[in-house]
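Response to reviewer comment R2.3. The reviewers asked that we include at least one raw input/output pair. We reproduce the pair for NmrA-like domain-containing protein here without editing.
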Amino acid sequence: MSPRIATVFGATGLQGSAVVHALLKDGTFTPRAVTRDVNSTSALSLAQLGAEVVAADFGDKEALKNAVAGAEVVFLVTIPTFIASFPESDQGKNVIDASKEAGVRFMVFSTLPGISDLSKGKYTNAAHGDDKATAQKYLEASGLPSASISTGIFLENLLNKEIIGFSFDKTDDGYVFRTSTHPHSSAVHTWIGHDMGPAVTALFTQYVTRSSEILGQTFVLGSARATFEDFVVRLSKGLGRPVHIQYEKRLGIPAIDDMFDCLVEFPWYAGMSVPDPRLEKLGVKMGTIEEFARSVLKSHVDE
Ligand SMILES: NC(=O)c1ccc[n+]([C@@H]2O[C@H](COP(=O)([O-])OP(=O)(O)OC[C@H]3O[C@@H](n4cnc5c(N)ncnc54)[C@H](OP(=O)(O)O)[C@@H]3O)[C@@H](O)[C@H]2O)c1
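Raw output as returned:
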């Protein structure tokens, strides 16, 4: 029997690599990892683990066709225009068109709320949210069976010095969390490394048998909804030492400033429980912020 193929975009990145690892562990699908450089260290290590690795850029329609040819399912994460140098909504459109043409049966799209719509036109600069929402609408109108996973703010931001708006450091009496979000704003906190892989695997392996619970749904991936003040309390419990929160000035980057302003006035996923009980019913057990602090953050920051 020929293998069931799952094409994974962004496979060398945080979300995609979590999906590739979870698919390899589960064994139902053979992951086909998409990268622009099949010879990069991350691409080579995915190949070594057993993934098929193929080259494609979101702007290269022919390469995208090859990336999804023969795939049963596709995981798509798109990249903000200012990073990928190619419009984010068109990245989505190109992959969705290629997947539909290739006869892909099911797609999972990693999305975000459209900040312009959510804020009723008040915050219009957060293109990374708006473009994902545009691509999601395009997917839902395309006729390709799909589900979307909407994320919160990644816990892994605390591990990555290149991410703007958040930092986490050791101090003499504990730790300090610095952020350009605003006091008392609440967010969904998402542990990608723990939860994205199992969530996508659960959808891929059950989209036929539990189609009524999956197709057309937008799931919220998150450990908890919490203010940043509560967030540091939970981190502190996991780390066993105090965590101080320090609010920083605005970044002067309209896309991110608008997103953080929006969080104060227009909560994301209002009225929805986090963790999402629909994902839990499908067998996904979300990690907690305390567990992230204890098992990942502590060794990273204490090094
Ligand atoms: N940080 C947060 O708190 C947060 C919260 C919600 C949503 N997000 C969203 O998460 C997304 C980023 O996901 P991530 O953190 O998993 O990514 P990441 O770790 O930054 O990795 C980016 C991935 O995209 C691939 N890529 C970049 N440009 C490409 C192109 N032109 N064509 C094809 N592939 C390309 C890269 O592959 P190669 O380099 O191997 O080609 C890499 O695998 C963004 O859209 C962001 O808006 C972030």
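Residues 5-302 form a domain with the Rossmann fold fold (CATH 3.40.50.720). The chain has one domain: 5-302. Further pairs are available on request from the corresponding author.
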